[in-house]
Each structure stands twice: as C-alpha cells, then as structure tokens.
C-alpha cells in the first residue's frame, strides 16, 4: 500500500488530490496500463474507499467524493492522509435480471443498449442494480427502456 499526504483541491464541483508520480508509476506497473481509468482502493484519513484514477487535462487525479470523505467539497485546502494501491478485484456488475428480460422483449432498446459505450452501459446497470425497492426497479427499468428507444431522459441524460 502506498501512503502520502495531499492537499484537497477542487475542479469545478469535484474535490480531488494529485497522486505523486512515483506512486502513479507503481500503480501503472501493477495495472499493466497507464491509460484509461485505473481501479484503485485504499484509505482516506483511515476510512476505506474504492475509486478509479482518472486522467483529465493531462493530470492524473484521485477524485474524493462525500462517501470517501464527508463534506469533501467544504474541506478544500485540507491536508488528508491517503493510502492507495491498484485494485485487482473484478468490478463488473451483473445487470438486474428484470432489465435483461425487458431488453430481450424490446429488441430496438437492446440494440441501442448494445451500441452504447461500455461506460454508459455500466452506468445504467449500476443505477438499476443499486435500487432498493421492487417498485423503484420496475419504474426505472421502464424509464431505461423508454430512454433506449429515444422517448425520454434517464439518469440525467438525453436520448441516446
């Protein structure tokens, strides 16, 4: 596990820290890549997190959300203690079985879903899979199918 202290910064509305280059090099070596999102895990001030390293505007950043650090947008300038390592765990999320059923019923929606970038597919799958009630699942699957057919917005996105 790599450990460092960093000053919490903000880009737009997103709090983040820069990861020292030597630590990035170690993570990239373990990940066998230095492009695209890189899954990482560790601790922020002793609290465990799972996150993804992202490169934006030529800089690698570890974005710090409010789950990782409470009130993080209000703590800009604070020095935090970070541990970080490449996360080797598989992070795939299986689609909700009812989403699969509905996609198979609506071939046009399934075709549009299959043509979405993997990140957008994952966004839909994750959203529906994390819903707590059966009613919420049903309602949002219906919205997702409508979105994939170009009829409505879904999860803050315009028609595909």
Walk me through what this model shows.
There is one protein chain. The protein is an alpha+beta fold and 160 residues long. It folds into two domains: 2-86, Elongation Factor Tu (Ef-tu), domain 3; 97-148, no CATH class. It is 35% helix and 28% strand. It contains five helices and seven strands. It has helices at 21-31, 97-105, 107-115, 118-129, 134-148; strands at residues 2-7, 9-11, 14-18, 38-44, 47-56, 59-63, 79-86. It has a seven-stranded antiparallel sheet with strand order 1-7-4-5-6-3-2. The termini are far apart. The mean pLDDT is 94.
What is the total tally of β strands? 7
Biggest beta sheet summary: 7 strands, antiparallel
* Average pLDDT level: 94
Instruction: Please write the CATH class name of the largest domain.
Output: Mainly Beta
CATH-level-2 architecture of the largest domain: Beta Barrel
Percent of residues in beta strands?
25-35%
CATH superfamily caption of the largest domain: AF2212/PG0164-like
From the N-terminal CA to the C-terminal CA, the straight-line distance is 40 Å
What count of helical segments does DSSP give?
A: 5
Helical fraction: 25-40%
Tally the structural domains. Answer: 2
Structural class: alpha+beta
């Amino acid at each position: 596990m790599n450990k460092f202290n960093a000053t919490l910064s903000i880009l737009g509305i997103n709090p983040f820290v820069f990861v020292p280059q030597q630590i990035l090099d170690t993570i990239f070596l373990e990940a066998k890549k230095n492009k695209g999102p890189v899954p990482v895990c560790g601790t922020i001030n002793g609290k465990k997190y799972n996150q993804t390293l992202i490169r934006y505007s030529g800089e690698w950043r570890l974005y710090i959300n409010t789950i990782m650090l409470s009130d993080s947008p209000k703590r800009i300038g604070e020095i935090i203690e970070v541990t970080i390592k490449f996360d080797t765990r598989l992070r795939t999320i299986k689609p909700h079985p009812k989403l699969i059923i509905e996609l198979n019923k609506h071939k046009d929606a399934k075709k549009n879903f299959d043509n979405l970038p993997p990140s957008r597919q994952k966004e839909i799958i994750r959203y529906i899979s994390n819903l707590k009630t059966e009613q919420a699942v049903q309602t949002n699957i219906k919205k997702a199918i409508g979105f994939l057919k170009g009829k409505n917005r879904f999860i803050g996105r315009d028609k595909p």
